[in-house]
UniProtKB/TrEMBL annotation:
InterPro entries: MoaB/Mog-like_dom_sf, MoaB/Mog_dom, MoeA-like, MoeA_C_domain_IV, MoeA_C_domain_IV_sf, MoeA_linker/N, MoeA_linker/N_sf
NCBIfam families per the UniProt record, alphabetical: molyb_syn
Documented EC number(s): 2.10.1.1
Origin species: Luteibacter jiangsuensis
The protein's annotated pathway: Cofactor biosynthesis; molybdopterin biosynthesis
UniProt keyword Membrane present: no
Record's protein name: Molybdopterin molybdenumtransferase
Cofactor(s) the protein requires to work: Mg(2+)
Keyword NADP set for record: no
Length: 396
């Protein structure tokens, strides 16, 4: 079977994975979720015309004439008086601008004179004033559907009085780590055993990306055990990720067992290095992503493939993964058959992202992640990539 080009794999996710149902949630629980509506401001912002400075609310037309102080307006405590010609109100940042006033003289340009004040500089109308609705008016849409809610947008919604939002349900994730040779760190190692890197990598990636703790099961290279674990995962999760057992070895049971459980294969084997044996299938809207056992391959399958699938499951608009652009700091070998996904260091001292190749790129190696910032996409071709060539990359 020919290998599927990486860009075609990304298109397959877009054509086959549908968004999960939506639900209304309190705003404070919506961090990291994707909007399924365009929430509208419940109030105008600013809600009232107010002072931007600590100083005095005045009438600009009074110029430099002395003014009598007639009250105080603090944030949350409006002055009960209007400012007439020749008058001023002491006002603090965020205080309601009293009727009659049309400017604020910040206190640095004001002298107190017993009962009143004198301005050292004239102020213009509107100076140090924030007008009601100047940022947005009640009813204005704050963000569109498909937008992921980060800390900033969450705060902007709260400020505009939006207390609940309609979002796509977040995917539940299950992880199956397969392999007779795999032992958890801290356990004794017998000949032929390896420490588990994929369990920690998968767990940490999903947690780091806001999906919470995935359910993780460790499964022997045994058809019956895998069938039981995969069946349970398909019943409980929206995205099931397996590691190992997906190539052509005698104990590579993932494709076989997935097929037996009614998971429809959409592709198997991608023209990428590392991560070639990647398997992707679906059952009733649920996604099974069979990642190879090599930890370097798992890293690529997470950053590129899981990212793209999660965006689909969560109704996120905008291309995911969101590739950035950088420039190669030195020439890098290409692979004629497979796209390479290479770990590099990013240097931004000259402004643009300069990508420096790191040693130890093989799919069974992870140690260069101590210095890597970027996963760089080098498309399959015959000639090497030249120094200075522009290439897409993802932060890792
Ligand atoms: N004849 C062929 N052999 C292989 C091919 C091929 O096309 N023809 N593809 C190779 C490629 S590329 C990859 S990638 C691997 C993927 O194989 P599997 O997905 O079946 O993975 P395993 O064989 O189970 O494991 C591969 C490797 O990774 C180690 N491993 C597994 N799990 C973990 C873990 N949790 N933590 C750390 N290391 C793990 C495992 O011990 C193996 O060394 O197949 C090639 N073979
Ligand atoms: O695809 Mo494998 O991950 O190259 O070693």
């Amino acid at each position: 079977m020919p290998l599927l080009p990486l860009s075609d794999a990304l298109s397959r996710y877009r054509s086959s994975v549908r968004a999960l149902p939506t639900q209304r949630v309190p705003l404070e629980l919506a961090l990291g979720s994707v909007l399924a509506e365009a929430p509208k401001a419940r109030i105008s912002l600013p809600r009232f015309t107010q002072s931007a400075m600590d100083g005095y609310a005045v009438r600009a037309d009074d110029g430099l004439s002395p003014r009598t102080l007639v009250g105080t307006a603090a944030a949350g405590t409006p002055a009960e008086v209007a400012v007439k010609a020749g008058q001023a109100v002491r006002i603090l940042t965020g205080g309601v601008l009293p009727a009659g006033a049309d400017a604020v003289a910040r206190q640095e340009i004001v002298e107190r004179t017993g009962e009143g004040i004198v301005l050292r500089e004239a102020v213009r109308k509107g100076e140090a004033v924030r007008y009601e609705g100047e940022e947005l008016v009640a009813g204005a849409a704050l963000a569109g559907p498909g937008k992921r809610i980060g800390a900033g947008l969450l705060a902007a919604l709260a400020m505009a009085g939006v207390d609940t939002v309609e979002v796509y349900r977040r995917p539940r994730v299950a992880v199956l780590v397969t392999g007779d040779e795999v032992r958890r760190v801290g356990e004794p190692l017998e000949p032929g055993h390896v420490y588990d890197a994929n369990g920690p990598l998968l767990r940490a990636w999903f947690v780091e990306n806001g999906y919470g703790e995935p359910v993780i099961a460790y499964v022997k290279d045994d058809e019956a055990a895998l069938e039981e674990a995969m069946s349970a995962a398909l019943d409980s999760a929206d995205l099931i990720v397996t590691s190992g057992g997906v190539s052509v070895g005698d104990r590579d049971f993932v494709p076989l067992v997935a097929d037996r459980l009614g998971v429809r294969q959409i592709f198997w084997k991608v023209a990428q290095k590392p991560g070639k044996p990647l398997w992707f299938g679906m059952r009733d809207g649920k996604v099974l992503l069979g990642m190879p056992g090599n930890p370097g391959a798992v890293l690529v399958c997470l950053a590129v493939h899981a990212r793209a699938i999660l965006a689909q499951l969560e109704g996120e608009t905008g291309e995911q993964p969101a590739w950035r652009s950088g420039v190669l700091a030195s020439s890098v070998e290409a692979d004629a058959q497979r796209d390479r996904l290479v770990r590099m260091r990013v240097d931004t001292t000259d402004g643009a992202a300069s990508l420096e190749l790191l040693p130890r790129q093989e799919s069974h190696m992870l140690s260069n992640l101590a210095s890597a910032h970027a996963l760089v996409w080098l498309r399959a071709r015959d000639v090497a990539f030249a120094r200075g060539e522009k290439v897409p990359w993802l932060p890792i």
